[in-house]
Amino acid sequence: MRDAQRFGWDLHALELQNRLKIVFTTREVLRQELQQADSVLLEQAASIGARRMFIDGGARLIGSSGVQESRSGFHVLTEGLQRENLTAVLAVEASALDGNMHASLPEESIADTVIRLRMEDNFRAVSRSLEIVKSRGQYYQMGRHTFRINDGQGVQVYRRVQAPRKASRDRAAAFDPAARVSTGVPGLDEIVNGGYFLGSTTVVAGISGVGKSVMGLQFIAEGARRGEHSLMLSLDEQVEQMLRNAASIGSDLRPEIDRGVVRLEYEPPQEIEVDVHFHHIEQLVQEFKPKRVVIDSLSTYGSALGTQGRVFRDFFHALVALMKEHQIAAVYNHENPEMLGMASMMGGFPMSSLVDNIILMNWVETGDCFRQGLTVAKMRANLVDRTTRECEVVNGKGMHVLPRELQGARAKAPFSNYTGLISRAPERHNPLQ
């Protein structure tokens, strides 16, 4: 009763109301009672009209002299419970099954449903998982799902991120050929054909400090200006720091948060549990109903989940499907450390086929200074101008894309006078030759 109280359950009050009966006994007495037609235990259950029975510590309840005896004894036990129309759950400690995917207990062949709970190591962290091994007469989702024991709630299960969802999500697509959302970056909409499609997936890839987060904040601020619900989820920066960054480029997002148009979320990447994290994103999307989302950044997810196995790709695939189902224009920032001598757009992240648009942000070294370059590398269902353009970030104004020919005091050789802008060493040439 003391332990249950911590989860908000007053078992003592339920007993006083005759809605619950708690019995402490020994395995031997319980075994004998459940096998008797005039069982005192079953009589107690009938006296309060019980329909459920939970037996804790059921290990060795039947006996351990042999598999056949265990099965026979368990069969008698289940008959006694079914005779009284009781739905019974037995908790059995089965440490012998740890690490053995195919081992089973003798009772599993008789039980209608078998659920295995495990403690799993994950890079020195430990997580809990739940697997439905069998469940007669109904469909169930196979595989190991994460669960947690939360104060005030008890057990909460989070479906594994790879598990199939409803058909509307699995078949979701960016289908509207006309509806677009503005990027919020002056000069960029013209390059990306007026903005991003609803339901599209855009990756902004570039080396650290090149302006990816600034672009994301401007995307969110533009949504707020238009009255569109906009969500930014970061694994890299706390909410207060995101607000500070937005203020430095002339966007005060706090009033937009107060009026319910913008949400900024931070989740620490240490020991991230992917099923729990994805459940949180699902809830945000379903409750807040954003039209545009920024996630910062994929590279941090890769560090937390790894990029060599299926976990990251399955997680990203699930994210893309979720955003398409709700017709959200989603932008993902991705730090690619190879951008100063790029070997691939996504580095070690095998996800290019899932992405609709890829925008490359790069430092271009000309003379003794770095200049910011932007290249649209991919846009599904759009004509693409792959010309590298210069852009810059100005305090109080944010990022904007510069015109091809620079004039006045800022005049300098335009990018059109260079070759190899995305490679390690751009070279200047005479465009008239």
Task: Explain what this protein looks like in three dimensions.
By secondary structure, the protein is α/β, with parallel strands linked by helices. It is 27% helix and 25% strand. The protein has two domains: 157 residues, P-loop containing nucleotide triphosphate hydrolases (Rossmann fold, 3-Layer(aba) Sandwich); 262 residues, Rossmann fold. A nine-stranded mixed sheet has the order 11-10-12-13-9-14-15-16-17. Strands 3-4-5-6 form a four-stranded antiparallel sheet. The longest helix has 17 residues.
Record keyword descriptors for this entry.
433 residues, alpha/beta, Rossmann fold, 2 domains, 9-stranded mixed β-sheet, 4-stranded antiparallel β-sheet, 25% strand, elongated
Summarize the structure.
This protein has 433 residues and is α/β, with parallel strands linked by helices. The chain has 2 domains: 2-158, P-loop containing nucleotide triphosphate hydrolases (Rossmann fold), CATH 3.40.50; 167-428, Rossmann fold. It contains 13 helices and 19 strands.
